[in-house]
Queue: 2 jobs
Job 1
Amino acid sequence: MLRFKASTLIILLSVVLASCGNNQNKQTDESKANPAEAAPVATEVLVKEKNILFFGTSLTAGYGLEQGEAYPELLQKKLDSLKLPYKAINGGLSGETSAAGKNRIDWLLKQPIAVFVLELGANDGLRGVAVNETTANLQAIIDKVKKKYPQAKMILTGMEVPPNMGAKYASDFRNMFKELAAKNEMVFLPFLLEGVAGIPKLNQNDGIHPTSEGQKILAENVWTKLKGVL
């Protein structure tokens, strides 16, 4: 009787194992016939981040402020909130003149640039540098960017000088930015400090550099032009 049960059990196990083997072979065959079902393929496409270089003076660098309070960093927060694939690079340097910027730009152009925002000339104006000299330096910077990244979108921010620099100098200085933008087909922001310049509560004690609240306005000023090229 025990022998019968043992032999019967062996037969039953053989049938079960054979069945499992057949099912496994069937699943394997189906997987080969339908590879998409066997190994799901990720459909999400990663979008490569593109760089926006803000190249300028202490106004861009955020002189006297905490890290993250300058307008390029504020614009990065806006870009992130809108889920736009751009990285803001703050290339501002306190005391930068157009001549110094012409020499420094090559180093910053080692990284790919999709958008170039040029904010230079303010320190030239305060020092009374000849307008034609500043013009030549800014054009040299623009030419370098165009040569290295011909597809890059470009924005130029304008600046004003104090009245004590003289009416003619102030007028020539103001027109320089407009003419450069038109010549090089750049998006033009006439005055970076619009809504901030001359307002004590929006400027630090030196009356020149914006406070953190003033930088927020600068960010909005730049955004009015930047959003159109992204």
Job 2
Amino acid sequence: MRERTTEANNLIEQEFLSVIREYERVIYKVCYLYATPNAPLNDLYQDVILNLWKAFPKFRKECKISTWIYRIALNTCISFYRKEKNVPEIVSLTEEIDRTVETHDPINEMLRQLYRMINQLGQLDKSIILLYLEDKSYEEIAEITGLTVTNVATKLSRIKDKLKRMKKEE
């Protein structure tokens, strides 16, 4: 019984590898169209192959194999693209502030110090304080972060206290 399962798996694996070899250019073409610096070609290709492998045993041959491959490749790449689109670009606050301020101005030096301290906070705390510094209301911050208004107020108070402690430690 176990030998039959192993033989069947080997046959499926060989058939899959044959299909991949035959349609390798198609897969690369689709991946190439969706490749970006955050979603490199090889990463997309690997995800498509993985999804094809997972779906291969369920392929019912109701359509051409090329149609099926295109569909999975496109869906995989589009999903990858959507995920990437929702990930904000991370920019170092200290570098950004350094570009916009002069070095000898005491106010600008304090701003630089504040942004350095903010950069040391966790992602959620950093988001909350930056929204606060952008003059967003507690309600707006709550809506953006998915927290309650009370939670935003509490977190903001703790963040301010943490920044004050950081300032004293410097």
